[in-house]
Design goal:
Shape: rod-shaped
Radius of gyration: 54 Å
Number of strands: 15
Largest sheet: 10 strands, antiparallel
Number of helices: 5
Order of helices and strands: EEEHHHHEEEEEEEEHEEEE
Strand content: 25-35%
Distance between the termini: 159 Å
Helix content: 25-40%
């Protein structure tokens, strides 16, 4: 029995197996090979091909829809995340811990508490600004520096009086009052005081009403005081007529006056004294014309609480 191609109707020997060499369709045997049968088989074959194509199309469409749904879900998730990031408050400004550290640092006795809080705040990574903690540490450092300088200054010597002996040499002794109960606080004209290897002597003073072109304010006069300073220390000594001296007229603060120094032809006390050398010069003040006493303080160290004090009585 011959085999037939169900598509084109060609007949082949029964010994042939496989597909039609023209239509590439599997051969069948024992089928009606009339024109009507071939048309019917061809129609069924086309329907099967169309059915497979439609099924593949539907499958592809389903996969495409799934991917679209997944993409939409991912988009919504990203959008929600972005909205969450936008709605999340941004960390700005100093933290409460750093503000507390700054407040404590202003109080000398509690500055160590501010230091601890500032260090803790700097170790916390919360996105807050740390400027208050940094300022608190700086203030604490300044407190420590100030306390150390006060301790150093308070340990300075007290001024000692220097007197001349019968053999012409000078001797230094602690100046006491006649009662011996307290140390001498102030020194007068031509008295030499010594402290920290610095000797200071008030050698002269004078009063001036000024001149036609350089006069004090109405009711005031110029008072000029001369000092001699000897540097017996191992280092240079800086002297400033503005910073190293301060004065009080009848217990009221007297202002240093540069115009008063213009009335004097001598040197003013400004400059540096080398070790083993000395300087002589004047300082000037403007005081009320009815002044009775003038007290001049000299310090060789701005951090020292001890000062040379010289007393002038009109």
């Amino acid at each position: 029995m011959s085999k037939v191609c169900p598509k084109c109707g060609r007949e082949f020997m029964s010994s042939r197996t496989g597909k039609c060499p023209i239509c590439e369709v599997a051969l069948v045997e024992g089928v009606d090979n009339s024109e009507a049968a071939r048309k019917e088989r061809l129609r069924e074959l086309k329907e099967r091909e169309l059915g497979n194509t439609g099924s593949q199309t539907r499958q592809n469409q389903s996969q495409s829809n799934q991917k679209s749904v997944q993409n939409q879900g991912a988009y919504r998730e990203n959008q929600n995340t972005d909205l969450g990031m936008k709605n999340k408050p941004v960390s700005s400004g100093p933290s409460g811990l750093s503000i507390a550290a700054l407040i404590f640092s202003f109080f000398g006795c509690l500055s160590f508490v501010g230091t601890i809080l500032a260090i803790i705040d700097l170790c916390i990574k919360d996105g807050k600004k740390k400027i208050c903690s940094v300022i608190a540490l700086i203030i604490t450092f300044l407190w420590c520096f100030f306390i150390i300088m006060v301790i150093i200054g308070s340990g300075s010597e007290k001024p000692k009086a220097v007197t001349a002996s019968s053999n012409g040499r000078t001797t230094t002794q602690q100046a006491d009052t006649q009662s011996g109960e307290s140390s001498k606080d102030t020194f007068g004209l031509m008295e030499t005081a010594e402290m920290n290897d610095i000797q200071v002597t008030m050698t002269n003073y004078k009063e001036s009403a000024g001149s036609e072109w350089n006069s004090p304010a109405s009711g005031n006069v110029f008072v000029l005081v001369e000092f001699e300073i000897v540097n017996n220390s191992d280092s240079d000594l800086a002297i400033s007529s503005m910073l190293s001296f301060e004065a009080y007229a009848d217990d009221y603060a007297a202002n240093s006056s540069l115009t008063a120094l213009l009335e004097n032809d001598q040197n003013q006390l400004d400059g540096s004294i080398a070790s083993g050398k000395r300087m002589r010069g004047w300082v000037g003040y403007e005081v009320p014309s009815g002044w009775r006493t003038l007290e001049v303080h000299f310090t060789d160290n701005v951090w020292s609480s001890n000062k040379f004090k010289f007393f002038v009585q009109k």
